């Protein structure tokens, strides 16, 4: 059954790439590509994990992706055609009007000083939290104990320091955009080392959160922004095979770099444990498929509050404003495979079915397809300015990891999302728009 699912997804992905003019970043293509990748990993580990797959699992995944694709092509073929900017007759018109983004060194130094101060206090607070949890290994084991505190207790760095950290995050995204923009339009000679420093400081601060999510989001944003700017510079509407191969090679290089950082961070935070690197990567990238199968076999449906898993972050934010919604844990229950393997990593489809049933999942996928394609189509047609490209890169993370987690709804209106996007917009207007 799993082989049938993989072949079906491979065929679907090829069809979607053809319909999207070879664009691997188009929302329907990207979602299908990631499900295909996760299914391939699950297929390679089928004997090791020992899960027997049902036909229902195949139906759920395929119909979920088809519903998303129908929504996406509804926008592309009906709404999108009305918004097309006539760029074919104005080749490279955007590139001709570009200006190098330049931030005065004294301004960068001032920003860098602010970011370093905030990062220092984050490191200091994280270390203090680790001591409370029993850390005796100094800074080398700090993140392991801090992670325990963040998961199992209400201990945090505090609201003020958290908000200041979101400001650092906003600056990190702005400076990485500046680096990508200048490099694509003006070449490597335009890159200034001082612009790399705020990005490095942001990465250090992000490490204090002990999670890997922030790094996946950052990597996806970088790739998304780079590809979209490259499309604009080259005025690409339909990708040649050489372009597709080039994008895939860049993506593979980025994935390898991420896996190295992934394992390193896992070692620092104690998440890796005794599992081999290959096992850890397989669990994180492919166990969502068998986990979904087990979930569907158990036929679990949410009988409590509407959308308790899907709208977890929204309800949590509303609670901070004085309301009283049930605040269940965001960590899903584990399922066990054979040979001691276990996971609590699921596809986004699991969350939608749990909260809204199969029909609700199909409707949500269709709506997601409409919204993402509407946003993406406007970007590719030149209808939005660069702040929307940065925001799309930030949000595209949720779509890119649909095969292993639901971030599109579960992070919707979270405190982190609200403040990081707010500061991205604010710093864009201050540092780039006026520039």
Describe this structure in words.
- The protein has 2 domains: 2-96 and 268-376 and 385-433, no CATH class; 105-243, no CATH class.
- The N and C termini lie far apart (56 Å).
- Strand 1 and strand 2 form a beta hairpin.
- It has a two-stranded antiparallel sheet.
- Helix 6 crosses helix 7 (142-152), helix 8 (159-186) packs parallel to helix 10 and helix 10 (213-234) packs across helix 16.
- The protein is 69% helix and 1% strand.
- It has helices spanning 2-19, 27-44, 46-49, 55-79, 93-96, 105-132, 142-152, 159-186, 193-207, 213-234, 241-269, 277-286, 288-298, 312-320, 348-380, 386-400, 415-433; strands at residues 335-336, 342-343.
**N-end to C-end Cα span:** 56 Å
Number of helical runs?
A: 17
Strands side by side in the biggest sheet: 1-2
Order of helices and strands: HHHHHHHHHHHHHHEEHHH
Structural class: mainly alpha
How many distinct folded domains?
2
Poorly predicted runs are: 84-96
Estimated helix fraction: 55-70%
Major sheet characteristics: 2 strands, antiparallel
Tell me the total number of β-strands: 2
User: Overall mean pLDDT score?
Assistant: 82
Radius of gyration over all CA atoms, rounded? 22 Å
Beta strand %: under 5%
Oligomer: single chain
Give the overall form: globular
